[in-house]
Amino acid sequence: MSRDALLDAWQEAWSSRDPDAFRAVCTPDVHYEDPVLDQPIESVGELGRHAQRLWDAFPDARMEATAQRLWSPDGRYGCAPVKLLATHKEELAGLPATGRFLVLHAVFYVELDEPGERVWRVRGFFDRYDAAVQLGVLPARGTMGERALLMLRGFGWTKGR
Length: 161
Known about the structure:
By secondary structure, the chain is an alpha+beta fold. The chain contains 4 helices and 6 strands. About 25% of the residues lie in helices and about 30% in strands.
């Protein structure tokens, strides 16, 4: 399987609603991190359970590529820009379903295993604050609500703003 086909399969696994779909794409000891995890995931089974929590709260979740992937000269490291499209239909970590549609842009930084056949290490990057704004949990940036929140957090209010 080519590198790009492997990342296509990675994206499809996130859209599949099948926790076992990652087994065909990742090493058994895959290391995965993203902004919503407290600690990195260290196995393909844990990754499948993490994805299942997403699918439980966002049953229509799907992932799409947003730009060309970039690869290191040796082909072992890649960067895949994507977006997640989903509707928040069920509870998530204590947050009741909002019914809101979410478009979350993300980038996966991927390291393949030595033969280049499976995903071995992944770091996902996305803006948690933007996701919370889209779900109606936090105020939009630049609004009075955000300023009030910052004041409560101890960041103060500056004159002239």
